[in-house]
Amino acid sequence: MRILKTAVLALCAVLLVSSAGLAADTVKIGLLVPLTGPAAADGTSALYSVQIALDQVNAAGGVLGKKVELVYYDDRADAKEAVALAHKLIEQDKIAAFVAGSYSLPTRAVAPIFQEESIPLVAAYAIHPDVTRAGDFCFRNGFLGMVEGKAAGYTAHKLLGGKTVALLTSDNDFGRTLVIGFKEYASKYAPDLKIVSEQAYPFSEKDYKPYLSKIKELNPDVIFASGYYFQTGPLLRQARELGIQSKILGEEGADSPKLMEIAGDAAEGFHIVTNFDRDDPRPVVQGFLKEFRGRHKFEPDMVGASAYDAFMIIMDGMKTAGSTEGGKVRDAIAAVKDYNGLTGIIGGFDEIGEVVKPVQVQVVKDGLFRHFGVVNDPELIKP
């Protein structure tokens, strides 16, 4: 009996060692994305893009001689769901780093958790300042809302030639932060730019005509209409139905092929400030576009490009550090300079983990987002 017990214990020990060895042969990266609910198109795009990045990394031999494994869950863009899943990624899945592929509310909720565990987090496109305020393990590849708001002000004023502007924004963290940045640009850099109207609509709004009717009476040169594609799409359609001729400017929340599906011809001439230039000739951009279109038969977007970069920044950090240990990877990401990203040449991250790179301006032409301009003034893109 004693011999049998000893044999069983020995076998268990062998199995434990074998399991540990297998685990050590992979590097697990966590990802939370909204795959159901109103944000599902964004979450799907983010997931598909990270999977392209994953396949490219593994095809090139993985990271530090190990295969990279992606562990992802649907957070439904819900903060409570995201918190529970963050603990699962840490405690059950034992991830080495995390890509935040969701909106600001869930990303803000999980950032302190990964900070506490010293697990590097790179947010793809969540814009709220609290994401990086969580601590020095938290980085943002997308733009801080204030930066994007200032870029929108510059675009309305300088690139679209506006003298009068109406603000019509989603009443959430996203919309409020953008407005703060826009108004900061106007007060500091554009004394001749007059804000003639400022309105906010509930997140669940479907009928924008009451807001737009007030704006039509004022006939501003530009309407800054911030919101997600499922908000901006109907807004654009309703604006043109009312006969509004003002130029309409949005931001990265509207950067989705779904916008054109919803708005139809009303999307033509719509401008956005965003994190992705489809006409950038660099091979990393054109190769990604070809791969994404070939795999999925629809247009890639800012959300996907930003998530791709977030994943690749983590891979670059691990390679530079020569380690998957959280602190060493964090230090390597913090030291990034002139990284050749899909969303532009990333100058680096500032002392609180905010990205420094130009803001792209796109315009809808023939149903597709195309290059219109770029905002690269250091004072405007500085977090």
Automatic annotation (TrEMBL):
A Pfam family: Peripla_BP_6
Claim: Signal is one of the keywords in the record: yes
Keyword Signal attributed: yes
Keywords: Amino-acid transport, Signal, Transport
GO biological process, one term: amino acid transport
Name of the protein described by the UniProt record: Leucine-, isoleucine-, valine-, threonine-, and alanine-binding protein
Naturally occurring in which organism (per UniProt): bioreactor metagenome
Domain Leucine-binding protein: 26-366
Stored InterPro entries: BCAA_transport (IPR051010), Leu-bd (IPR028081), Leu_Ile_Val-bd (IPR000709), Peripla_BP_I (IPR028082)
